[in-house]
């Protein structure tokens, strides 16, 4: 019986650890003291993979912190780190999340901040547009149109509601702006993913509840002992 109890605890622990939520949406991990370039395929950011939807040419994005450009007034919108999806130059690059557990039929709200920058002495780089893809399908394009007119960073928050069609979902953000140059082109920070309130309940994943395991294992046990009794009687 002690063995059975520890087995049940193990199942319960596995169940509670199986639900995967959005990880590192503010890009505070792993942290950097300066600007670093991450190339397509990189998994240096926990929870995300760097992607390039336009193969060939440049394939890098920039990962930076507020200190790197703080002197220019360019800072993160949340925490102290953010992404700049233009990299050195170009478009179509970005990040794709690891699979996030969902419940089919439930509506989720994706929130994110789109950054535009105005570097002292260089002027504004213009409006910035990011594309959001859900499971590799374009869901929408979002343009920061705040029109920054002095040096600094300019973050505009957007949200997008999506109904889950299966047990998991991946989010991709790509720089869509046709910027001719800039290593401070298209900012991304503070990505959130939450079920809207008042949704059909149910925890993500399909691990049976501990109660179901108890019944199943007790069932096996009873079947086994009655089998042994029959063997002895024979
Ligand atoms: Ca951040
Ligand atoms: Ca490319």
Question: Overview of this structure, please?
Answer:
By secondary structure, this protein is an alpha+beta fold. It has two domains: 46 residues; 186 residues, Jelly Rolls, CATH 2.60.120.260. It contains three helices and 14 strands. Strands 1, 3, 4, 7, 8, 11 and 14 form a seven-stranded antiparallel beta sheet that branches. A five-stranded antiparallel beta sheet has the order 2-5-13-9-10, with no helix packed on it. It has a two-stranded antiparallel ribbon with strand order 6-12. Strand 9 and strand 10 form a beta hairpin. It starts with a helix and ends with a helix. About 7% of the residues have low confidence. The structure holds calcium ion (2 copies). One calcium ion binds next to loops.
At CATH level 3, the topology of the largest domain is Jelly Rolls
Radius of gyration: 24 Å
CATH first level of the largest domain:
Mainly Beta
Number of β-strand runs: 14
Distinctive features:
single chain; 234 residues; alpha+beta; Jelly Rolls; seven-stranded antiparallel beta sheet; five-stranded antiparallel beta sheet; 14 strands; 36% strand; globular; binds calcium ion
Brief overview, please?
The protein folds into two domains: 1-18 and 207-234; 20-205, Galactose-binding domain-like (Jelly Rolls), CATH 2.60.120.260.
Write the layout of secondary structure elements.
Elements: H1 2-17, E1 36-39, E2 48-52, E3 60-65, H2 66-69, E4 81-84, E5 93-97, E6 100-101, E7 107-119, E8 123-124, E9 128-134, E10 137-144, E11 152-163, E12 168-169, E13 171-175, E14 187-195, H3 210-233
Antiparallel strand pairs: 1-3, 2-5, 3-4, 4-14, 5-13, 6-12, 7-8, 7-11, 7-14, 9-10, 9-13
One calcium ion binds at residues 26-28, 76, 78-79, 81-82, 189-190.
């Amino acid at each position: 019986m002690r063995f059975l109890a520890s087995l049940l605890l193990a199942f319960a622990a596995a169940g509670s650890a199986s639900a995967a939520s959005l990880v590192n949406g503010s890009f505070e991990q792993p942290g950097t003291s300066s600007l670093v370039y991450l190339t397509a395929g990189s998994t240096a950011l926990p929870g995300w993979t760097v992607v390039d939807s336009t193969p060939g040419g440049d394939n890098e994005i920039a990962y930076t912190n507020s200190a790197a450009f703080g002197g220019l007034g360019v800072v993160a919108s949340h925490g102290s780190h953010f992404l700049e999806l233009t990299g050195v130059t170009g478009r179509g690059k970005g990040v794709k999340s690891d699979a996030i557990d969902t419940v089919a039929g439930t509506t989720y709200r994706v929130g994110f901040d789109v950054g535009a920058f105005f570097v002292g002495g260089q002027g504004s780089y213009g409006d910035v547009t990011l594309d959001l893809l859900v499971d590799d399908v374009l869901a929408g394009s979002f343009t920061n149109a705040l029109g920054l007119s002095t040096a600094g960073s300019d973050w505009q928050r957007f949200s997008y509601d999506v109904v889950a069609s299966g047990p998991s979902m991946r989010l991709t953000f790509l720089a869509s702006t046709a910027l001719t140059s800039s290593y401070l082109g298209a900012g991304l920070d503070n990505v959130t993913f939450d079920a809207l309130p008042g949704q059909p309940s149910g925890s993500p994943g399909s691990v049976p509840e501990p109660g179901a395991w108890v019944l199943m294992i007790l069932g096996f046990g009873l079947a086994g002992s009655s089998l042994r009794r029959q063997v002895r009687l024979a």
